[in-house]
Each structure stands twice: as C-alpha cells, then as structure tokens.
Amino acid sequence: MSNKHYINLKNELRKEKFVQKEYEVSFESLDLPEEYSSSEDVKVNLYIIKEKNGYAVSMNFKSDVQVECSRCLEPFNMDLSGTSNVFLSTKKLESGKLGSGDLDTQYLEDEEKFDLNDFIREEILVKTPMKPLCDENCKGICPICGANKNENPCDCEKKEKRKNSPFAKLQKLLEGKQK
Ligand SMILES: [Zn+2]
Ligand SMILES: [Zn+2]
C-alpha cells in the first residue's frame, strides 16, 4: 500500500529546465471511491517544465478503469486515458486572476513534495462522466421487476401502462355496468 509517489520538483528541476519521467502507480494507491476498480497499474508519463512561478505539467496517462453504469448498475470498463495539462503555481492564486492562458492552474503547496497519486486521482475523477453509461442505449433496470433490461427485456412497463390507461379504467366501468 505504501506506493505513494512524491516528487521533489525543486530538486528535479534545479539544473534542468525540463524533465520527463515515467511512473507505474498501483491502482489501489490512488485511493479512489469504491465504485472504481482496475486490474492494471496506471501508467503515467510526466513532462515538467520549470516556469517563473511554478511548473507546467503535462501528464499522459493510460488507465482502464472499471466503473458502475448509472443505469443498469453493472460494472464496465471505461478507458480514461488521456492528457492533462496543468500549471502548478508556487504562488498563491488570486481569485479572479486564474491561470496562465487556458491552462488549468492549481496551487502547489510544497514544491519539494508534489503528490503524484493525488494528482492522478483528481484527473481520473475529473475525466469520469457524472453518469457513466455502459452503453449510450443502455436500457437500465426495470423499476417493477428489477430485471436488467439489457439482458432480460420484460414488458412490465407496458403492462403497467395498459393497466393505468384511462381506457382500461373505462373498460372496467363498462364491465361493471354490464353485470
Ligand atoms: Zn448500463
Ligand atoms: Zn420488469
């Protein structure tokens, strides 16, 4: 579990203006919410450039994550690989004056202890859609019988609709009259 990666940016970039680093971070060490799982480590490529008031970080990462579909609740694999460009500012950010250009800017509290795991976790959370779907056309779960409608299409809702339609009620009334 002690698979934390802290990077001493100050040291790493004391002489160099630019460094490139590769990491393999165990998925558990990212401490993500329990809906997330993965059998693979997260592979990370970091490019760091020293700037006047901080560090420009470009992170390329590869991660195949299992999350729960928000409709049918089945776990499915989602590719969350991608690139994140973040400016780590060593100066406290003034509100309203955010960012350099269109770079996402974060305040870096300790440049001798940049927490890579934390950084990756945030990026994975940001990249996960609010309502992950195993498939755009996922049919979800039947609210009546609880079946996963992708696997067991049922006609509960149709039946329910028929039962509640005004014509069904009318039918009943008419039946009652005939008696
Ligand atoms: Zn689904
Ligand atoms: Zn049903």
Entry summary:
By secondary structure, the chain is of the alpha+beta class. Helices cover about 20% and strands about 30% of the residues.
Secondary structure tally: strands = 9
Q: Roughly how many Å apart are the termini?
A: 75 Å
What order do the helices and strands follow?
EHEEEEEEEEHHH
**Mean of pLDDT:** 88
Write out the strand line-up for the largest beta sheet, numbering strands in chain order. 2-3-4-7-8
Q: Unreliable runs, pLDDT <50, ≥5 residues?
A: none
Assign a percent range to the helix content: 10-25%
Largest sheet: 5 strands, mixed
The computed structural class is: alpha+beta
Query: Which overall shape is indicated by the principal axes computed on the Cα atoms?
Result: elongated
Q: In total, how many domains does the architecture comprise?
A: 2
- Gyration radius, to the nearest Å? 26 Å
Bound molecules: zinc ion
**Helical run tally:** 4
Oligomer: single chain
Strand content: 25-35%
Give the helix/strand layout.
Layout: E1 6-7, H1 9-12, E2 18-25, E3 42-51, E4 54-62, E5 64-68, E6 75-79, E7 82-89, E8 104-107, E9 114-115, H2 116-127, H3 156-164, H4 166-178
Parallel strand pairs: 7-8
Antiparallel strand pairs: 1-9, 2-3, 3-4, 4-7, 5-6
Bound molecules: zinc ion (2 copies).
